[in-house]
Amino acid sequence: MTYQPQYDVIVVGGGAAGLVAAGQAAAQGANTLLLEKMNRPGRKLLITGKGRCNLTNIAPLPEFIEHFGRNGRFLRTAFHAFFADDLVKFLLKLGVPTITERGGRVFPASGMAQDVVDGLVRWTYGLGVTVQNHAPVERLLVEDGQITGVQVAPISTRRTRAEAAQDYPRRTWHAANVIITTGGASYPGTGSSGDGYRLAETVGHSIVPVRPALVPLETAGDTAAQLQGLSLKNVSVSLWIDGKKHADEFGEMLFTHFGVSGPVILTLSRQVVDALDAGHRVILSIDLKPALDEHRLDERLLRDIDTYGKRQFSTLLKGLLPRKLIPVCIDMTGIPPDKIAHQITAQERTRLRTWLKDFRLEATRYRPFSEAIITAGGVSIREVDPHTMQSRLVAGLYFAGEVLDLDADTGGYNLQAAFSTGWLAGRSAATRATL
């Protein structure tokens, strides 16, 4: 080789996967450099879980893997090496106790993502990791199929490239082991702007087309805008693509000025994005009364009509629906708001019952990467060894975290994958460095 290694391991990207990978490599005795393009590590971690940081989930391993779809099996080795219970114990040692909430979701007990970031950063510094901020990697250096280092672009707040080079000249760092943990393309303001895909592609890796995942959806018409700010809990939402039911989820959703969001919608969005990109028609069917089947719901309506027969239809609906939904229900069922309850016909009651069980919205678009929680697509996992996270194409090159073609439902699954793959990549790279 024509270079002198300056480090045993270089980690590119200081997010969840990067911090853990760097710390693990250093813990195994590797001289480790962490390069972060932003002014400090952990920027995206700070906004996860709305600032509370949904770290992981206590679901059993088989169920956990199912949340990643067909690519979930790739994570078995990483999860066996470092899983949810290991993460909870690890964070406790860092002074970050956790709590488990509804749905098995695990958060820092303080409810502050900042505590997680601070704990991880202290840990890496304590292990002797060299951290270089303002260090965007623009090129991977490869000789004869072996990674030899990285080249960092000059950056500055000044306007011209020449002036930038004066502040932060182009630098080259050499190492025989490099771990790419640059994240995806969601929330680009935190530094996740797709750099890792470009770097991987330049050395021969295939990139599965990237698209937003866990992303809010836009809907046709002005119905959602009328309901803006309304949150529905304990509803069932079914996904229909070209007239065929593909999935359904139960839980909470939110109406916005452009469409819909919330946990149920974000989970379904993984399929919606692909369906819309393929030109299919997408319908979201909301069951507002999932605890009641058609027969029991009809009995409920008959009971209400009998009890409050002298009330107007709009008043009767106050016992069935949130206030904001009442005008929408009246409009979509076509029942006059001032109609007396006991005058409602069997046909009108059927329309009401049907709407309560099948309130439909057409999804027309999905929101941009800047509003997506994670990215779908990325470095093809076929070209990465799941037992080490090492590239099958370039010796000494590793990948971890969201840069890989791995994405799951909301609930802590994606962040655990970042921690686990980072943990495994860090250990693997350090082991290789000592051979």
Oligomer: single chain
Number of strands: 19
Q: How large, in whole angstroms, is the Cα Rg? A: 26 Å
CATH-defined fold name of the largest domain: FAD/NAD(P)-binding domain
Head-to-tail CA distance between termini: 16 Å
Strand content: 15-25%
Helix count, DSSP H or I runs of 4 or more residues: 14
Let me know the largest β-sheet. 6 strands, antiparallel, barrel
- The shape, in one word, is elongated
Strand order of the largest sheet: 12-15-14-13-16-17
Second CATH tier, the architecture of the largest domain = 3-Layer(bba) Sandwich
Low-confidence stretches: none
Any overview of this molecule?
With 435 residues, this protein is α+β, with helices and mostly antiparallel strands. It folds into two domains: 9-213 and 376-433, FAD/NAD(P)-binding domain, CATH 3.50.50.60; 216-366, no CATH class. It has 14 helices and 19 strands. It has helices at residues 16-27, 61-66, 76-81, 84-93, 113-126, 161-167, 195-202, 223-226, 263-277, 294-307, 313-316, 325-333, 346-357, 413-433; strands at 9-12, 32-35, 56-57, 98-100, 105-108, 130-132, 137-143, 146-152, 171-174, 178-180, 207-213, 217-219, 231-241, 244-255, 259-261, 282-287, 359-366, 374-379, 397-399. The strands form five sheets. Strands 12-15-14-13-16-17 form a six-stranded antiparallel beta barrel. Strands 6-2-1-10-19 form a five-stranded parallel beta sheet, with helices on one face. It has a three-stranded antiparallel beta sheet with strand order 3-5-4. The radius of gyration is 26 Å and the shape is elongated.
Brief summary of the model shown:
The chain has 435 residues and is of the alpha+beta class. 33% of the residues lie in helices and 23% in strands.
